[in-house]
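Complex record, two chains
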Amino acid sequence: MRTMDSRQSANPALGAADGGPIGPSGPLRYVRVMAVFARNSLVRDMTFRVNFLINVASSISWVLMNLGFYLLIFRFAPSIGASTGWEQWPFFAFLATGLLINSTVHALFMVNADELSELIRTGNLDFVLLRPIDTQFMVSLSRIDWSALGNFCVGLILLATALVRMNYLPSFLECALYVFFLVCGVAIYYSLMIALAASSVWLGRNLSLLDFWFYITTFARYPMEIYQGRFGAPLRAAFTWVIPVLVVVNVPARLLVQSVRPSSASDWFLAAFAVAAAIASLAASRIIFQIALRAYRSSGS
Amino acid sequence: MTAAIEIKGLTKSFRVYQKPEGLLASVAGLFRRRYRHVEAVRGINLTVTPGEFVAFLGPNGAGKTTTLKLLSGVLTPTSGEARVLGHVPWRRENRYRRRFALVMGQKNQLWWDLPAAESFRLHQHIYSLPRTEFERTRDDLAEMLSVTHLLQQPVRELSLGERMKMELIAALLHSPEVLFLDEPTIGLDVVAQHNIRAFLRDYQQRRGVTIVLTSHYMIDVAALCHRVVMMGRGRIVYDGSLDGIVERFGGHKVISLHVNGAWSPELLSGLGELLSFEPPRARLRVARGDVPAVLQRILAAGQVLDLSVEDPPLEEIVAAWFAAERSDDGPSRRGEEV
């Protein structure tokens, strides 16, 4: 063992007034930490590469099977609902949009939300709470599931194919708006997920609540026009205005699909609502997360 | 000098779900739950000055770990106040979080599947440490703990002792001013325990950091800390030097005699509890207050070649106290059922 140099005896943390940041601070620090998370996750995935490849292959084949199933349906019906505009290729553009959003949520947040329940149950959230960085940021993004990007690529290919088949080239503005609404959609999904996961603090364990996320988001996987009639209308209202998952895929998809593009004031209102819903969901999840942290009991010794 | 740690009337109680035994009772528990109210920490007061190395000693469930968790802001207290380096811990300010570290012997904060070096790199960015300084600190610490060659090995492939050293490095990279150590040597073999202790003593002396340590091992405490805080059932029952524990809790003294044939075991037993009798040596346990009288009787009887009065070993005193704390653990910890 070697003793420590005298030059180290001066505490560097004391040098910076009140232990303030010494290196990069603010957003740059978060970007760097995020980069390390991404890198470490990739290194870890590569360590177990067979597992990684199986994950990619199984999730892509699940998506392809679903596409095959929809192709089958379109052999019997020209569109989803009469005169809704959701013919085969527009519908596939819709599916691609859902795929892009889902795979992004999956890649960035799914493992972490799962992990949060576990961190709370085992008391390992302690270590996250010690770090001088936003706890919700750390909890939400500390692992990235790179294998989910396989589906992201499938989504891109499917979207491109659909647009070509529709013979439509979106303008730059449309592309930008599309990406913007994708981000809003991801934000809504994320908020719902992290709020459910944070409730583990009160429930001890709630992987079943995370299943609840899957059940709810299932409703968002189809165009909102299908929710009609005595049963459909209340569902549509609930999943638009109360838990706004219906706007997640519908709003961006409508931007690109000519036959159902926003034309009336009410359509644009829905788009504006999607932005508001994203902001409100993020704020609500933040509040729930903070309350959960205060109630955290840190089990184990 | 302002205190590094100041605690006033700190209290933390938990409501614990009582899981009944058996399937039927479990189902009934779905509808009507029984809770137990546990007071883990009951209104403790404590002041620690900068640069002190304090040990928390006490049986399981005494409230040591809960106190450390309160001081590191992991838990919010039920009532009471605490300030560490002037910060209220449970406000969880980043400014405070840059200035302390918590190491838990029973928990792992490093990425399990990655080399420790990768976790350290993450710490560098979280704590915004300049690169050169970070690398120098990391390399110095790794060298002091003799783990430089293990930095690139996945954490899951390290031994318990090696992992503990990595945990310590991770905790010290940002040069904390206050360090909380919760049973840092638990489960380690004798050599690893010794190495960790030697490192901690050396590090504390050179850096002058304030350290609060909890341990079950008296040897940790004896080797490292001048000040011992003993906790029992959520309260501080003793705060002072190690030697003071003997005064306070050692109710007995041990009289060692060198006697000749005139003394029999029966005769000695009349004076106190006979611990051993191997002529010409005998050891007697005598209540502290009775020592003068017993000595007088021995000397009056004569035939004693040598005589000494000693305190029993510290380890024994503490063990006896732990056992006593635990044996009447029941009623006071059970609390009220609601």
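Note: Chain A touches chain B through 48 residues (CB under 8 Å).
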